[in-house]
Amino acid sequence: MFVVFVTGVSGSGKSTLARTMASWGHRAVSTDADPRLCYWSDSSGCPVQRPAEPDASWLTMHEWRWNPRHLDEIIADAANQSDDPLWLFGQAANAAEFADRFDLTILLEVDQQTMITRVQNASRGNDFGRVGDSLSIALASYMPFVTAWRRHGAVIVDGTLDVETVAEELLMAAASAVLHRRKPSG
């Protein structure tokens, strides 16, 4: 089974693309939507409840993280169901720790103005960017986030394009990665 991780800054289109890919018949999971997988944690890694209006101090002292056990369960369950690719869409402070679980990582890249416009849209399901100091924290973490994933070798896809075009770009990136995989010798 081929596992594709699609990440990006807040407002890059991850959840929208997960829904689009699922509607096209692909196995797509929005990791942010799974409360068993994603949680806010304090510096010791213990889960905490995010305040309704988190200030900058709270946001810099806490992280949005993945539960590795549940991530492994999602991947194993998908592998047991079929050999079709699994698409994971999301972002977490510890996501890079799990890079060995992904066959391909894609970074949805958007400019800061697009990010601001999208996160401030009230119809967006996620309130991050509209509550408390979350927008200022998202802007402050923009360049470090993009730089880190580029350094990790993520394939870059322009997330500012229309949803269908971006979804097609994701499919092409995955197809290219599959076709260029080297089989172990021996």
UniProtKB/TrEMBL annotation:
It comes from the Bacteria. InterPro entries: P-loop_NTPase (IPR027417). Pfam families: AAA_18. This is Uncharacterized protein. It comes from Rugosimonospora africana.
